[in-house]
Amino acid sequence: GLERGAKNQFSTFSNFITTINQKKEGIGNRSSPTQLVIPNIKNVRDLPPICLDVRQKQRISIDTLPQELKAPVPHEPSLPIRTKTVKDFQDDVEKAKSSGDWRAVHDFYSTTFDSFLEINAAFKKDTDSPFNTIEDSGINAKFVNVVYDALLNTPQDVQKSVLKGIINGLLQEWKGPRTKDDLRAYCILLQNPQFSNTSTYVIYAHLLRQIAALTEADHHFLVHWSKKISQRRFKQLVDRLLQFISLRLFPAKPEEFPPMVKCTWWIPSATKVLALFSAANSLISPPIISYTDFYNSTLDHIDLMEEYHNWQCYGNSHRFSFCQYPFIISIAAKKVIIQRDSEQQMISIARQSLVDKVSRRQKPDMNMLFLNVKVRRTHLVSDSLDELARKKADLKKKLKVTFVGEAGLDMGGLTKEWFLLLIRQIFHPDYGMFTYHKDSHCHWFSSFKCDNYSEFRLVGALMGLAVYNSITLDIRFPPCCYKKLLSPPIVPCDHNTLVGICDVTLDDLFQIMPELAHGLSELLAYEGNVEEDFYSTFQVFQEEFGVIKSYNLKPNGDKIPVTNQNRKEYVQLYVDFLLNKSIYKQFAAFYYGFHSVCASYALLLLRPEEVEILVCGSPELDMSALQRSTQYEGYQKTDLTIRYFWDVVLGFSLDLQKKLLHFATGSDRVPVGGMADLNFKISKSETSTNWLPVAHTCFNQLCLPPYKNKKELKQKLIIGISNAEGFGLE
Fold first, then answer.
1. Which residues form the active site (predicted)?
2. Nearest CA among 570, 541, 538 for reference residue 555
3. Tens-place pLDDT, residues 389-416
4. CA–CA distance from 195 to each of 49, 207, 550 (Å)?
5. Residues 485 and 449 sit within 8 Å (Cβ to Cβ)
6. For 497-630, where are the E strands, in sequence order?
7. Residue 674: left (phi > 0), alpha (psi -120 to 50), or beta?
8. CA–CA dist 235, 622 (Å, integer)
């Protein structure tokens, strides 16, 4: 960004320090903002290493702190009086641009950024007010934005004077805790656009280090102040930190930075500061930016399994791992971690089975290395549930499916079809386990009471098997389900601990039962007399097998009227009843089933939204992206048959496109990495053009005869993809 201002780039930090030291005139000249004393950089006190163990604290603890912290408030020094307004500054900049005389602007920048006190004097809304609350930082955001927007278009000496002042402030000897003015200065300095340039990274790193080392109480203030930053500037701050981490990991010009061994604290410091912005983002509903904007795709190219193992092994120690800050790891990278963790567990379980067999002097059998599921298509659900119930000890082995009476060998394709057909039948309304809500197009757990909830456990195990075996499912659960599935993410040792219970809101109910949620929101907004007009109590009714049953939301709820004063409590208890209490046994069984297969510390890395993507993939089909990533065998992409094929496919309805995807890959869902991850291949079939296309779902391969015209290709393709159940051997 600096190219827009001056023609010359900043020199290296070492040369910069040398230049400053050559210009200093002694301690007595501190009154001049452009002449400052720089202590030896080696004498700056080392800050403690940064480490946050996600097992102990998955998210930065914000809400656990009181609104006003009771720690002693340090004395705020008196601020210099600065009267320049936004208009005064803008007038100075315009005059400088027209006259070429930048002295007034230079004096403003060099004075303002000379110390933390001067920063507050310039940008604090009212220098006489303390602004010691989390709700108002006291920063004149408009003035800060105007000053920073103009900075990159000023001459080089003006920009250097700002960096000199920042160095001066960072090298100050701190005594006692930070004041709120100090926190305000940190908040303002973080927004400096100069830190997008790699030549300023050494200064930026020291700023990040000091912010990362602040107390949790100070972080609490910074988090709440940060959530007031505009969306555009908030995103710029996040992108700047991500770029800093990426370029420190993979520098374009390594000579620009100190050796990695001398600045191991750079990345931990930046990551912890990024965690503050992630925490601020999560406090707002809807969030300021998407959680995916915190992903750093550069991490996809490092040894993530080493990061994962370090995190597992060193736990609470001070050894840094990106897994301590899972918000920065992309869903694609998390999928790799989960897949490899699953593979290692599969190998370990299979090896143990082999050792046990040999130790008993029995002949090893290859089938013992797999979870073999043998089912009849006509009894798919009952056979599958029986097989999984009998083979609980084998759930962590590689899955292999056999359909009775069919010659297909499972290299992955049969497993995909088994999941697809099984899910379709289990979630059918006639089966009674799940209720389909037409308004929200999603399934939810039936609240009907029964004697045995083992089928819910087996459905949970089925979903766990899909994640464990990297299969995407066409399941339409609301986001709330995945939030409950991670409550907690690791199965508690104490079986009396409640599982699958999470904080739920009216927004969660809107995603399942929008009509009921709308009615409750109307109740909350009602301006009349709730008790007289609604005549409701803290008692709700549900129909179960044709019988109406009543439930009290609290003790003696049938005798407690809903009033204007207690209606919020009523709505919260009602939502909690519907999404937690009324289905507790069903969901607990489902929870234990899922975790019986997927029990792994890797789940600690996931957000509920990410679990949903791993389970369901993406329903969004981008056939143009599939066309770009398709490989060919026997064909060239310019061949007439291939051109006919894509003309036809791109013109298909969404339903036919899904059928094609299911025909060729065994699933109509898109995996986490997008269409490119399918490794889709079209091969030339040397059979007669009277034949239909054939697919090898194990390898995501479509075998296409060289049809002579587009009409024939379209006709044969539609017939093939519309009658695609069953497997055989060629």
1. 698 (glycyl thioester intermediate)
2. 538
3. 888 888 888 888 888 888 666 566 788 8
4. 22, 10, 62
5. no
6. 539-544, 547-552
7. left
8. 27
What is the DSSP secondary structure assignment for residue 696, as one 8-state letter?
A: E
**Distance between CA atoms of 110 and 89, rounded to whole angstroms?**
14
Q: Which domains does the chain have, with CATH numbers?
A: 86-294 (no CATH), 337-484 (3.90.1750.10), 506-613 (3.30.2160.10), 623-723 (3.30.2410.10)
H/E run at residue 444: strand 442-445
Tell me: the pLDDT tens digits for 269-303?
999 999 999 999 999 989 999 999 999 999 999 99
Greater confidence (242 vs 343) lies with 242
By the 10 Å C-beta count (0-12 exposed, 13-18 middle, 19+ buried), 660 is classed as buried
- 502 belongs to the catalytic site: no
pLDDT in tens, 551-595: 999 999 999 999 999 999 999 999 999 999 999 999 999 999 999
Q: What is the DSSP letter of 441?
A: T
**Average pLDDT of 302-306?**
90
Distance CA 448, CA 275 (A): 43
Encode pLDDT of 189-230 as tens digits. Answer: 999 999 999 999 999 999 999 999 999 999 999 999 999 999
CA distance 226 to 317: 29
**C-alpha angle 8/10/16, rounded to 5°?**
130
Q: Which amino acid makes up residue 678?
A: L
Asked if 82 and 121 count as a contact pair (C-beta separation under 8 A), the reply is yes
DSSP 8-state symbol, 546: T
Adjacency order of strands within the sheet including 701-704: 631-633, 681-684, 701-704, 694-696
Cα torsion 192, 198, 202, 206: sign: positive
pLDDT tens string 634-671? 999 899 999 999 999 999 998 899 889 888 887 777 87
Q: Are 617 and 332 in contact (CB under 8 A)?
A: no
Rounded to an integer, what distance in angstroms lies between the CA atom of residue 486 and that of residue 501?
9
pLDDT at 57: 38
Q: Characterise 315 by phi-psi region: left (phi > 0), alpha (psi -120 to 50), beta (else).
A: left
How far apart (Å, rounded) are the C-alpha atoms in residues 552 and 728? 57
7 confidence band (pLDDT: 50, 70, 90): very low
Is residue 2 within 8 A of residue 197, CB to CB? The reply is yes
Of the candidates 187, 598, 698, 703, the residue annotated as catalytic is 698
In 3D space, the residue among 461, 462, 505, 465 whose CA is nearest the CA of residue 483 turns out to be 505
Task: State the Cα–Cα distance between residues 552 and 537, nearest whole angstrom.
Answer: 9
Q: What residue has token string 């990410």?
A: 610
> In the structure encoding, which two tokens stand for residue 301, read together?
């190219």
Q: What is the pLDDT of residue 564?
A: 94
* Rounded mean pLDDT, 431-454: 86
- Nearest Cα neighbor of 237 from 170, 176, 288, 202 is 288
pLDDT over 80 (residue 676): no
HEC letters along 593-656:
HHHHHHCCHHHHHCCHHHHHHHHHCECCCCHHHHHHHCEEECCCCCCHHHHHHHHHHHCCCHHH
